[in-house]
From TrEMBL:
Record-listed Zn(2+) binding positions: Q251, H254, D353, H413
Cofactor annotation comment: Binds 1 zinc ion per subunit.
The protein's required cofactors: Zn(2+)
Active site residues of this protein: E319 (proton acceptor), H320 (proton acceptor)
Lineage: Eukaryota, Fungi, Dikarya, Ascomycota, Pezizomycotina
Protein's name in the database: Histidinol dehydrogenase
Amino acid sequence: MVVKLKQRNNASVGAASKVDTTAVVRGVIGDIRANGDQAVRSYSEKFDKWSPASFKISQEEIQQIISTVPQQIIDDIKQVQDNVRTFALAQRASIKDFELEIRPGVHLGQKNVPINSVGAYIPGGRYPLLASAHMTILTAKCAGVPHVTACTPPIAGKIPANTIAAMYLAGADDIFVLGGVQAVASMAIGTETMKKVDFIAGPGNAFVAEAKRQLFGEEIGIDLPAGPTEILIVGDEHADPFILATDLLSQAEHGPDSPAVLITNSKTVGEKTIEEVDRLLKILPTADIASVSWDRLGEVVLVENLDEAYKVADEYAYEHVQILTENPREALEKMSNYGALFLGEKTCVSYGDKCIGTNHVLPTRGAARYTGGLWVGKYLKTVTYQEVTSAQESGQLGLLCGRSARAENFEGHARSGDARAHQYLGEKFDWI
C-alpha cells in the first residue's frame, strides 16, 4: 500500500516556462568553436555582464584575493579539504594495479592511469558553491591528475573571493572567472587563451549540464549527467518531524526544481512533517525558493512498513537518501539505488554537501540506477596490457586465435595468429 499524503503539484510544474536549452547551448558552442575568445567574451558580457582584461586570474591576483577572505573561512576551507583529501586518498589506495601470469609466459596486467588534463566547473549564480572546488579539483589531484583548469562565474559582477580561495587551496593549476556554457565550451574545445582539457567535472545549472552532454564523447569525457538536487528521506514512527522538515527544506532551497520526498510508515509522522515544513517556511530566509520547490515537487508518501519504504525509495533512485529510522544501517543491505546514503539522525545531507568528506557530485534523475557519484576513480583510466614471453604459448594462442577469428569470418585476424603458430610451432598454412 502506497498513499501520498502530499503529492507533486503537476499543474504548477507544467505551467513553468521552458527555454529551448538545447538550441541555446548548441548555438553558443558552435560560435565558440568558430570564433574562440571573441565569442567567449561576447557571451560573458551577455550572460554575466563580465568582461575583464583577462578571464584568467594570475598568481599575484589570487594572493591578493585570498588576502580579503576572513581567516576563519580559510581555516574552515582547509579543514573541509582535509576531510575530502583523507577520504579521496583512501579511495585511491583501494584501486590496485596488478599483473597476472595466466599461463607460463602469458602475462596480463592492469594499470590505473590519471587523466592528463581536467576541467572543473564550480557553480556560482544564486550561491557561491565553493564546496564544489573541494569535490572536483581536490579529488582530481588526489587521483594524480597533472593539470586542472578551474572555472567559476562572477557573482553580481564581482570575483567570488571565497570560491577563488577554495579553488587555489584545492590545487587548481589555472583559475578563470568565467561561467556558464562559455566556460564549459572553452575548456572542452580550447581557445587562444585556454588549453583544451580531456575531461570536465562539476555541477551546474541546466545550461551547464546540457553543454556537458553535447560535448561529451567527441570533445571530452564528463563525470556524470547532472540535474537539480534531490533529497529523499525514509523515516519511521520514531523520526522527529522537526528534523525531517528541516532536512527536506535544506535541499529544497537549492532551486525551484529540487524535489524533496519523505517516505514513512507513520501517518502521524507524515502529517506532522507537512505541518512543520509549512511552519518553517514562514521563517526560512530562502523560503522564496524553497517554498516553490516544496509546492511543485515536494511529496510525503505513506507505506505499510520499512521494507516497502526501501523498495519505493529504490524506485525513486535519488542522489541523496537520508535514513532516519531506529536501525538506519538496515538500508545498506536493503537498498541499491542511491547516490549517497546518510544514516541516522546525527547525519544529514548538508554534511555531505559541505564538509564531511564524501563527494557531493552525485547522480540525479534516476542515474543512480546505473552509476555512483564523482570519486577518485572517475579521474583514472583503467587500462590493460599483455605480454607473451613463451614461444610455445604464443604458438598455441596463435592456433586458438586462428580458429576463433575464422568462426567470425575475420581472416586478417586469423592470419596474425597463424603467423605465430607457423613461427613458433612450425605449423603449415596454405597462405604462408
